[in-house]
Amino acid sequence: MKLRLSFERMTISTRVILVGFMITGLFVLTTFLWVLPEVEEALLDKKKEKTKEQTEIAWGVLDYYYSQVKTGAVTAEDAKAAARATVRSLRYGPTMKDYFWINDISGRMLMHPYREDLLGQDLSDLQDEMGKYFIREFSEVCRERGEGFVEYLWQWQDETEKVVPKISFVRLFRPWNWIIGTGIYVEDVKAEIRSLRIGIVIVFLCLGLAGAVLSSLLGQAVAKSVEEALRKGKSAYTLLEEDLGLGRETSLRLRQFVLVVTIPALAVITGVWCVSLYHDLYAIIMDGFDAKLYSVSTVTASFIRGDDHAEIDRRESEQDSLYLEYVWPMTAILEKAGVTYLYSQMLSDIGTSSRYVLDASGGEAHSPIGSEEELTPTEYRGAQNVQTHGTVHISEVGPTENWGLLKTAFAPIYDREGGIVGMAGADVNIAAIREETRGALFSVSLIGIGAILLSIWFSFVISRKLTEPLDALKDGALRLASGSYDHRISIAQPEELRKLGLEFNRIGQTLKHTFEELVAVHVDLEARTRRHELTAAIDKSLAGAFPAESPTSAASFFNNRAEHKTASGWVARDTATILWLARPADDPMEAVRRRSDIGLVLGRILESSRSTTSDFVARVEDMYREETRALLVYLPGESRLYAVCHERISLGLLCAGSPPEEKNLTGTPTVDLARGMMVVVSDHEPSVSQSVLERLASSGIGPDTPLPYVLEALKGETKSFDCNRQVMVAVFRNPGGPT
Q1: For each successive 10 residues of the chain (739 residues), what is the average pLDDT?
Q2: Using alpha carbons only, what angle is made at residue 484 by residues 483 and 486, rounded to the nearest 5 degrees?
Q3: Sheet holding 677-682: strands in order across?
Q4: What is the DSSP letter of 34?
Q5: Spatial contact of 606 and 573, defined as CB atoms under 8 Å apart
Q6: Number of Cα atoms under 13 Å in the Cβ half of residue 110
């Protein structure tokens, strides 16, 4: 019993220290498993709501021009053209690169500010990199519900080479069967969550350190109280006799002491945690208002023509058609964007006041043309920067002379020469901000109260555990520490408690590094697997993208299972076939992409070319010098093969009555195909070597052999070379010969 009592006295502080770590861990788990996912979802919902508001603003522009058609002010075609031009000019976002696009219900692109190459095209078959027909989904969503969100992959703003996940909101404008939309990039939301997560981790590191110090002090105090009871001058025998009673008394004191110290500490930790969380949420909310004011003011400024703005100020008539032309869409924006006031102003020449020009507000809040308002010093400096440097000014929440507490944004209005002639203003009243922050405060309060209650319950459980026998603690520690980690905890002396903490830290670091290495290996393996699968799928789809056989030509890919893909390919139409022999590409995905790009461009040249043969060849002569070894243009109508060789190439000739011949080409030669002549071309030159041609001729392959049989024979020859990459082979022959 004496040994047992001494052992319990040495391990009580360890138990109390564990309480601090376990409570801190509880907060960490609560935050990362519950709070952060909820915040991320709320943030994404807020971003989506802002995106919906932006789309409704642009939709209001279409509705305005349609109203002009109904009144007979403009024709439908003029209204549509003006609507497209206005929406095309609308920009928002921190870098003013976020945009709107318009397509019709059938999937034809009508307006896109960054992709002129898509205008007028039917994009219903367009897929993103994951194979999703997102244009079709735009139309389906609008047909079924009139509006909605669609997730897909698309280019980052105006960077066509950068493709990222995107969530777009689309809305149908039924009078014209137009679909207008804009979107948010998921990476933006993830970046904000990462920033929030880093801030919370820093807070928890500080709280964890404080908790560790507090738990250590608490453990030392508890251990000291037990030692004091044992130093009362009693003999070992007396202690053994009174062990049961002393145990109960000590147990009760320990439990009360732990609760008295732990619960206030929990309250302090929870308070700090809630303040930090509320601060982060408040920052997110204010960033959301900044983004809304920024986008509304810049969108409004983008469609106000500076020359018209100056003319409205000069006329000073709110019944004038020019004034109404701008106020009506501004009113629609005011109703849909969720801001309090929307207007335009010009700085007065004297003093620190501004003069109203356009105002979408009604009733007592309306400011007539020419009415002046005294700006606060901060607002005036911001307005000066807007009109001097063209920057967008967003104020903090502050008092105004006539409108109470507001948060304001000013954006520059430009004339035709690029001069700044005014500014578009958007305000949000403090009531709207309070409503948003009140919800965040309520959520944080609920989370804090729940965390405190859970932690108090947890403290009661731990305080009871502190009084359990040493064997229970030892067994639990052994199960926790040994397990699959094969580690043993020694608690024989107080000095060993310090070593125990060091060992836990060492294990944590080892586990962390091992986990990170496993994750990195897994991610790399999965990325390589997906890239290989995607390359194979794209290669398979491209293999059937163009006609592979005709009476005068045939082409095919062999060894398609090889990891290394060829960028060579062909494009065939009724009047001509273009074939290119590509230089090797180390990356299979790059090879497939290059083949697709070259085929797309040369296919369009074939379809659009109406010039002579010499002009046609001249158009492709300087194309793709870096990517290809040679371009071959076969015109069956002329029985002639034109070559544009960027380096020496070989091709095979099979002619009735003559031995086969391997022919080398350089420069821009022309090969006339006599009657009964066949030309064999491959981007794997051993496949058309003299020996291969002789074997083909000896096996009965000749100009009159059906082209599919020729390709099969060439496929067998290619296999004999043990080639480790994909191979392209093509055959041309004189249409006057046997078919």
Answers
A1: 42 56 64 69 77 83 85 88 85 75 94 89 89 92 93 81 88 94 81 71 64 59 49 38 40 51 61 64 71 80 84 87 85 79 87 88 86 85 86 80 78 86 87 62 64 64 53 44 47 46 53 64 71 62 52 82 83 83 86 86 78 69 86 85 89 84 86 85 84 83 82 81 81 66
A2: 80
A3: 553-558, 727-733, 677-682, 649-655, 661-665
A4: I
A5: yes
A6: 21
For residues 13 and 500, what is the distance between their CA atoms, to the nearest angstrom?
13
In sequence order, the 6+-apart residues with CB closer than 8 A to the CB of 176 are: 62, 66, 80, 104
Q: How far is CA 376 from the centre of its chain?
A: 40
* Cα–Cα distance, 86 to 89 (Å, whole number): 5
Neighbours of 280 (CB within 10 A): 20
Q: Which amino acid is at 111?
A: M
| Residue given tokens 């024989």 in the structure block | 492
For residue 290, give every residue at least 6 positions away whose Cβ sits within 8 Å of its Cβ, in sequence order, or none.
Answer: 394, 409
The DSSP secondary-structure symbol of 626 reads T
User: CA angle, 163 as apex, 582 and 85 as ends, to 5°?
Assistant: 105
Does pTM surpass 0.70? no
Enclosing domain of residue 180 = 54-186
CATH number at residue 606: 3.60.40.10
Cα dihedral 262, 264, 269, 270 sign: positive
Three-state DSSP at 74 gives coil
Domain boundary residue among 186, 202, 218?
186
Bridge partner list, 374: 353
The two three-digit tokens of residue 362, written as one number: 């009604």
Q: Are 104 and 177 in contact (CB under 8 A)?
A: yes
What span, in angstroms and rounded, lies between the C-alpha atoms of 236 and 241?
A: 9
- Single-letter code of the amino acid located at 376: T
Number of domains observed in the structure of the chain = 2
User: Quick check: 99 and 54 in contact, CB under 8 A?
Assistant: no
Phi-psi region of 93 (alpha: psi -120 to 50; beta: other; left: phi over 0): left
Domain final residue pick, 186, 214, 246: 186
Q: What is the DSSP string of 497-541?
A: HHHHHHHHHHHHHHHHHHHHHHHHHHHHHHHHHHHHHHHHHHHHH
Q: What angle do CA 282, 283, 289 make, to 5 degrees?
A: 90
For the domain that residue 175 is a member of, what is the CATH number?
A: 3.30.450.20
Q: Tell me the HSE value of 521 on the side-chain side, using a 13 A CA sphere.
A: 6
Neighbours of 631 (CB within 10 A): 23
